[in-house]
Prior knowledge:
Layout: E1 9-13, H1 26-35, E2 40-43, H2 51-60, E3 65-67, E4 69-71, H3 81-89, E5 94-96, H4 103-111, E6 136-137, E7 140-141, H5 143-154, E8 158-160, H6 166-179, E9 183-186, H7 198-206, E10 209-214, H8 215-220, H9 225-235, E11 240-243, H10 254-267, H11 272-287
Parallel strand pairs: 1-2, 2-3, 4-5, 5-8, 8-9, 9-10, 10-11
Antiparallel strand pairs: 6-7
Pfam families: DUF6282
Organism: Yanshouia hominis
Protein name: Cytosolic protein
Amino acid sequence: MIEILKGAYDLHVHSAPDVVKRRFSDIELAHRFVAAGMKGYAIKSHQSSTAGRAALIREMVPECNAVGTITLNNAVGGLNPMAVEMAARMGAKIVWFPTVDSWNEYDFLNRNTDIPQPYGAVADSKTLKRERISILEDGRLKPVVFDLLDVIKAHNLVLATGHLSTKESQQLIREAARIGVQKMVVTHGDYPATSMPLEIQRECVACGAFIEHNYLQISTGESNWETAISQIRQIGAKHTLICSDGGQTTSIPPDEAIETYCSKLLENGFSESDVRDIFVSNPRLLVE
Length: 288
């Protein structure tokens, strides 16, 4: 364990059970994070609410604060306020807007055919077609988005932008801030499909959002240390969230990914206070 990570969180982890194979179960990961001295992790599924799973982990491994979440893809009805309401009542803390079913990612992959289909996507079949989901209609937020924001605000949930486009994320963050949503995260600040220019990142930060970076994008070559560290330095530690986005069968364990990112920041001149903000204080503000 790196002592500086005591009490840290990883708020973006893919674990089993899932519709695709994952490297670790919820139970295995809970024990790994406890052994690493970390406080907890958020269970992310592209296809279902994890609030119930997280509640069971908290009972089975009380030292680990497992965080329940929901992602607004087709399997939960897409942009579905009732699904968010029920997840919140079961204790979920984070709401990701569409990811593998987002129109933005679908369009990105169509324009970049050499990039593999995202891990965790559910393919079309003869009887079931995926809706490609946008939160905009005629360039404006759809009416249902305002209903979703009302639920998020009422339960003080974390709004995370998922795999939306920069334009979608910018409008969503602006409106969420306007109505008083307190907890916001721009997901995947340096992932190619969601890459957000620094000036818009700064606008989102001014609205109260954190900018998320992930070890997975470094390990796959979709981003690199130079880009990520430069953006983190310019945005600032107090506005940055770093997660593993781990759990794939080919990825290193999420706890090791967090340690690796922590070490890299220290090697590049970030202070211990900066690192504590990124891995401990900022996620605690979001989920505690």
